[in-house]
């Protein structure tokens, strides 16, 4: 293109006059400039596309950050036209090509993420801020500087890759003012200059300096000292702004004096300062270095507002005087987290003391125990049980105190009963003994007694067990609160009092049999088992149901014995040979058998009625 333009211009210039050739040359220069601009623009466009394909995350100042509000020079926030941000790579971690941004309060920055293996621009990025009070970021990556401080902005891709950018937000000072601008001092005098910086949340720190340290010295807090005669300027600087106070030092300057140079006031107190220079009382201007601690009105009346220190200044033209005011907040009361506690020997309980008002100035708390042998307390309110008993813990602050009653106990660890098994006869009683361990336990030793079957064995509140009827029951003793328990297995016996048989003698012929019936009193005896025996089983045999069988002629005694062996009953059995019976006797056998059956039925009926 350039060659064509050159040939065209050359052809036009041939044969032309000087003026025409001059115009043609001027137009050709313009054409060349336009061509070069187009080439540069195309080159920049191609470079931008190449950068985007390689994963660059562009960062630029948002529309709210105007050119007028941006600091110039190398201390710029680094967002004016420079590409910065993060690259998020799939599964390979995160890479930052801009690790830090410096912004001013109110600035906005648009972050654009490129993610994935192909590093294509993507909206599937989650943005977050570690401190939204300093810097916030929305879902589109628009970052806003909220307030002074530091925050970390993190971009997270859908596959978990992350990258972070550290953001430092500053709040520049917009102005600085001193409480005194032109003063005179005598050699050796001191004053405290107070610098007020706007805005109140600025991140710029105040730096103090003097133009001549041989005349006036100043420390980092703005306190000046007159060193020698002369004049010097003390300067306070915050960011790009500064303010100065001219200090003239002499040796015989009339001194402005205050009624007090140091005051100690309690919160809410007031005090009126007066100023004088010699015998004259000038009309001075009053100010306080910290109105939230101690304020002063135009008459010099100081009001203590909160704990801290403030310097009150009286200014009469170039003459000044100061009073340091220390405000304290006295203790108005004290209370403890508990008024009464119970602890174990060897354990610790922490009492917390609450001072009122909450802003009391450095309250000191003194702890004491009424009996250190029972409960000890340290300087932090930790109460330790030493031995069983009661002690009173006292916390004191100033003229106020609070108390907590401490009961130190030895807890019950277990309980057992003596005896653990008990056998009683019906109607008998016995008291069980509950043994609580350890023996010196001071915990409530009250025992609750109960029976699993009061119809068999009942128990009263003192552990006395009374046997009511045959059977078994479990007696349980529980400590107070039911934490521990012990049991005793009780068996109630109803013994046999009387024992007899329905017959004391019996005659049988060989081969015959008859059942003897035992009678046991009382009817509810717990053991009614009977053992049977024959003195001569060759004559009369007996089984364990009491059935007697005649075996051979002769006499035998059948004995019945209760199971416990305490009672026996006997029946004399006579066995006769069957051949020796007469006809009359044989005819009477059925009658006798009928009589025996009738007697047996009557005896069984009687036994059943006694059992009922």
Structural notes for this entry:
The chain has 612 residues and is mainly β. It has 3 helices and 57 strands. The strands form 18 sheets. It has a 4-stranded antiparallel β-sheet with strand order 1-5-10-9, with no helix packed on it. Strands 3-2-6-7 form a 4-stranded mixed β-sheet, with no helix packed on it. A 4-stranded mixed β-sheet has the order 4-12-11-8, with no helix packed on it. Strand 36 (375-377) and strand 37 (382-385) form a beta hairpin. Helix 1 runs antiparallel to helix 2. It is elongated. Mean pLDDT is 81; it is low at 48-96, 118-122 and 581-593.
List keywords for this structure.
about 600 residues; mainly beta; four-stranded antiparallel beta sheet
Shape: elongated
Number of strands: 57
Mean pLDDT: 81
Rounded to the nearest angstrom, the radius of gyration is: 58 Å
Oligomeric state of shown chains:
single chain
Measured distance between first and last alpha carbons: 138 Å
Beta-strand residue fraction: over 45%
Strand order of the largest sheet: 1-5-10-9
**Class from helix and strand fractions:** mainly beta
- List unreliable stretches of 5+ residues: 48-96, 118-122, 581-593
Number of helices: 3
Major β-sheet profile: 4 strands, antiparallel
Helicity range: 10-25%
């Amino acid at each position: 293109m350039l060659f064509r333009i050159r040939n065209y211009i050359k052809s036009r210039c041939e044969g032309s006059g000087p003026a025409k050739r001059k115009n043609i040359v001027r137009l050709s220069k313009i054409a060349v400039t336009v061509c070069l601009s187009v080439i540069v623009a195309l080159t920049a466009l191609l470079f931008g596309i190449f950068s985007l394909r390689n994963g660059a995350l562009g960062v630029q100042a948002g529309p709210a950050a105007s050119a007028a509000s941006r600091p110039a020079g190398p201390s710029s926030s680094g967002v004016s036209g420079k590409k910065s941000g993060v690259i998020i790579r799939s599964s390979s971690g995160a890479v930052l090509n801009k690790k830090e941004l410096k912004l001013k309060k109110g600035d906005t920055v648009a972050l654009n993420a490129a993610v994935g293996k192909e590093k294509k621009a993507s909206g599937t990025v989650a943005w977050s801020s570690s401190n939204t009070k300093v810097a916030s970021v929305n879902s589109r990556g628009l970052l806003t500087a909220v307030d002074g401080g530091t925050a970390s902005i993190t971009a997270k891709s859908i596959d978990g890759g992350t990258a972070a950018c550290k953001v430092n937000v500053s709040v520049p000072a917009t102005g600085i003012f001193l409480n005194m601008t032109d003063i005179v001092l005598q050699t050796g005098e001191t004053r405290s200059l107070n610098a007020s910086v706007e805005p109140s949340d600025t991140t710029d720190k105040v730096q103090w300096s003097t133009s001549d340290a041989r005349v006036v010295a100043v420390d980092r807090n703005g306190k000046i000292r007159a060193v020698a005669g002369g004049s010097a300027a003390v300067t306070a600087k915050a960011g790009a702004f500064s303010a100065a106070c001219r200090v003239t030092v002499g040796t015989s300057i009339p001194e402005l004096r205050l009624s007090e140079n140091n005051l100690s006031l309690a919160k809410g107190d007031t005090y009126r300062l007066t100023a004088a220079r010699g015998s004259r009382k000038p009309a001075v201007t009053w100010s306080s270095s910290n109105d939230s601690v101690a304020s002063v009105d135009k008459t010099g009346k100081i009001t203590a507002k909160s704990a801290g220190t403030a310097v009150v200044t009286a200014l009469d033209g170039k003459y000044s005087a100061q009073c340091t005011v220390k405000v304290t907040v006295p203790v108005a009361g004290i209370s403890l987290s508990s008024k009464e506690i119970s602890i174990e020997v060897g354990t610790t309980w922490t009492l917390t003391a609450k001072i009122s008002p909450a802003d009391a100035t450095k309250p000191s708390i003194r702890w004491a125990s009424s009996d250190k042998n029972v409960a000890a307390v340290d300087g932090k309110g930790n109460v330790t049980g030493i031995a069983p008993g009661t002690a009173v813990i006292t916390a004191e602050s100033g003229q106020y105190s609070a108390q907590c009653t401490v009961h130190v106990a030895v807890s019950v660890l277990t309980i057992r009963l003596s005896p653990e098994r008990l056998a009683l006869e019906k109607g008998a009683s016995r008291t069980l003994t509950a043994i609580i361990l350890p023996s010196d336990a001071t915990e409530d030793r009250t025992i609750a007694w109960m029976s699993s079957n009061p119809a068999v064995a009942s128990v009263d509140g003192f552990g006395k067990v009374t046997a009511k009827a045959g059977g078994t029951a479990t007696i349980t003793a529980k400590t107070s609160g039911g934490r521990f328990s012990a049991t005793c297995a009780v068996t109630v016996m109803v013994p046999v009092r009387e024992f007899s048989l329905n017959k004391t003698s019996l005659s049988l012929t060989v081969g015959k049999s008859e059942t003897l019936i035992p009678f046991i009193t009382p009817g509810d005896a717990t053991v009614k088992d009977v053992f049977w025996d024959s003195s001569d089983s060759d004559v009369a045999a007996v089984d364990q149901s009491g059935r007697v069988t005649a075996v051979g002629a002769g006499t035998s005694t059948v004995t019945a014995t209760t199971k416990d062996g305490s009672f026996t009953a006997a029946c004399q059995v006579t066995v006769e040979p069957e051949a020796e019976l007469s006809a009359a006797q044989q005819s009477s056998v059925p009658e006798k058998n009928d009589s025996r059956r009738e007697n047996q039925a009557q005896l069984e009926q009687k036994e059943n009625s006694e059992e009922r």
